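[recover] target loaded
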């Protein structure tokens, strides 16, 4: 149980760091309990529930995002390093 909790805490810290420098329009029109991410070659914007931060598969994407882009990505917001199809498959499983 403690291991899972530490993963959630790490994911929330990563998200907070990534979004702290993001553009203001990236948070416009995002309902409470959700956050925007950018995915794929053309950086398509998705709005996903914060509850995904509890999911190990999504946490792995956050770790990959940190390794590839760091916390200061020029796009602003959180960019996920996978294709749109892969992201859609993952979110369908999480939903």
């Amino acid at each position: 149980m403690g291991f899972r909790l530490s993963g959630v805490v790490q994911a929330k810290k990563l998200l907070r760091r990534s979004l702290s420098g993001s553009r203001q329009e990236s948070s416009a029109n995002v309902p409470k309990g959700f956050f925007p991410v950018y995915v794929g070659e053309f950086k398509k914007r998705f709005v996903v529930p914060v509850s995904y931060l509890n999911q190990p598969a999504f946490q792995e994407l956050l770790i990959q995002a940190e390794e590839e882009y760091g916390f200061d990505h020029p796009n602003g917001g959180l960019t996920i390093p996978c294709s749109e199809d892969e992201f859609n498959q993952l979110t369908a499983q999480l939903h």
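[recover] notes: The chain is about 45% helix and 15% strand.
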